[in-house]
Amino acid sequence: MIKTSICDLLGIEYPIFQGGMAWVSDAVLAAAVSNSGGLGIIAAGSAPASFVSEQIKKAKELTDKPFGVNIMLMSPFAEEIAKVVAREKVPVVTTGAGNPSRFMKLWIDEGIKVIPLIASTGHAKMVQRSGAVAVVAEGCEAGGHIGELTTMALVPQVCDAVNIPVIAAGGIGDGRGIAAAFMLGAAGVQIGTRFLAAKECGIHQNYKDKVIAAKDIDTIATGKRLGHPVRSIKTPFSRDLFAKEYDASISNEELEALGTGALQLAAVQGDLNKGCFMAGQISGLVKKEQTAKEIISELVEEAVKQGDRFSASFMKQKTCPPASTCPPASKIAFVFAGQGAQYAGMGQDLYEHFGCVRELFDMSPEIRDLCFNGPKEQLDMTINTQPAVFLVDLACVTILSGKGIKADGVAGFSLGEIPAACYAGLMSISQAFQFVTHRAKAMHECAQKKKGSMYAVLKLSAKEVKDICDSLTDTYPVNFNSPGQTVVACSEGSAEKLQKAVAEQGGKSMKLAASGAFHSPFMNKASESIAAYLENIDLGTLNIPLYSNTTAREYKIEDAKELLTKHINHPVLWQKSIENMIADGFKTFIEAGPGKTLSGLIKKINPDVSVYNVSDIPSLEKTVLLLQEKEHSKTKL
User: Fold this and answer.
1) pTM more than 0.70
2) Which pairing describes strands 219-222 and 230-233: parallel, antiparallel, or unpaired?
3) Distance (Å, rounded) from C-alpha 132 to C-alpha 280?
């Protein structure tokens, strides 16, 4: 199983794009790749808009999975095709051979995710500013039109230059290449040449045979003199064209004319003498025809094996002092803020600076606007607060992950357990957002029907608070936050008695700005609604430990639906959760989301651990800097 941020972003199973190859990548091939878990891409090439429209309609008939269209911006039909893909609301558009900025607003307004192909860091930064959700960084090992930098040199530099996912392309033909791309920082790969030998690929058999028979040195780059180099299989045509580039008696116009239509002759007619059989340097790795499903399965299986092999090799080569002097590993935990931390304006600066954050918030323009502009009264309504805080929480960790800061485990306070579950792999982003929206609605309706209040009780032990609650009706301890701080939910009729009892014991009580008596039996109906909702949901797997508010222990996948259901009407064991995480080796905690409430609670629970928070640009920059300094100090030591 390979899953990266690009999978959630596009709704695909594997982070594998099939390259958009002119005269090659049609609806049949694209649909086959998408049905196999990758992202199939139709190539517009220099075809008219009517042809592209037909291919899009055919792809929709062949698959219900996301697919894309690649638009060559040098095409005379580019503007018409741009309008076609907008009208058809194609899920993804990739672009090549130019700057797509003039079409970006048109596509983004239709909810289309735009992923340009770039050949430099400057180009990558430019398209990021225009609203691209990711970029394809293609090295000169690729087939077709190429740049000058290799994939090994280009990809890591692009990853450092932008804050959106980077897809590596060029010279990737098997699982080893995919694993290498991930090590360079890529979130996915684009593969073209391997799919030339797909059984669903409709090119002439001569073209397939050329690729399968090719050796490592059997490609050539022509067109450098014209400033538009193209990589293809060596043939009489390509060798002749290469030689004529060095013939001063032949004009550039004549060279252009020689290459016109050569790809079509190869792909459609299989002309071995006049055709240009575009293919990448990995042609020597292509040994046979396979279905798209077989190709993707083989790619994924080998990439996983390579990842495991690297991990094992890395661990063997690491050196460490003797066990008696080697300190226990310090793990990083992300902890996700809950309801109550919200404020108007939260997430706005992150949205303005990071394309990955725009993608998150743009799932719900209504919630996005409430986050940024309020009004406070509407933002504080449970039905709005929960999806709003969810988006901000997830935005913060998405940026951290893009900067190479990953969690070894997660926990979330109350509502925060949902973005934590999403980050851990239990749900996709869209699935989690739909769930949190349903959860908020169920809790809001329950709170309206059964009125209640919540009070923070300070200066008393958890046992003292529990004893007070047991002496009253409809009064429950619901959040065990930290030593000396417990939250109580109660009926409106019991509120005055609670305050009086707390004062008599020497404690202090403060009414919270909560719109219901959450995590108590007041929420039983909401819990039932969640249970019914989850019956029809297929949850994912857990990639890292997720600590439950209800048990203060790690989730077990077989208990996940039960825990998500109980989460509504059972207490939040926050103090015990943090204590258990510390015992499990977590010594660094990064709070993600609005406010710093959890940071304060964790410091009260254990002042010896390191605590950071990310809620906006200043806190992000501070946290990243402090973590880098900490890592540098460890390295020096």
Assistant:
1) no
2) antiparallel
3) 26
In tens, the pLDDT along 283-340 reads 999 999 999 999 999 999 998 888 766 655 444 443 333 433 333 446 999 999 998 8
Q: Which domains does the chain have, with CATH numbers?
A: 5-202+289-307 (3.20.20.70), 215-285 (no CATH), 332-449+516-636 (3.40.366.10), 452-515 (3.30.70.250)
For residue 631, the Cα-to-chain-centroid distance in whole angstroms is 25
CA-CA distance, 530 to 567, in Å (whole number)? Answer: 10
Question: Which residue pairs, CB below 8 angstroms and at least 24 apart, start in 45-49?
Answer: 45/72, 45/75, 46/22, 46/72, 46/75, 46/76, 46/77, 47/22, 47/75, 47/77, 48/77, 48/80, 49/77, 49/80, 49/81, 49/83, 49/84
Q: Containing H/E element for 564?
A: helix 560-566
Pull the structure tokens for residue 207: 């073209």
Find residue 510's DSSP bridge partners. 456
The predicted pLDDT at position 391 comes to: 96
By annotation, the residues acting in catalysis are: 414, 519
DSSP 242-269: HHHTT-TTS-HHHHHHHHTTHHHIIIII
**How far is residue 209's CA from residue 629's CA, in Å, rounded to a whole number?**
55
Question: Running DSSP on this structure, what letter comes out for residue 328?
Answer: P
Cα separation, 295 vs 289, whole angstroms: 9
Q: How far is CA 22 from CA 43, 47, 117, 586, in A?
A: 5, 9, 15, 51
Tell me the helices (H) and strands (E) count for the chain, helix number first. Answer: 27, 20
Decide if 90 contacts 56 (C-beta within 8 A): yes
**Cβ proximity of 223 and 230 under 8 Å:** yes
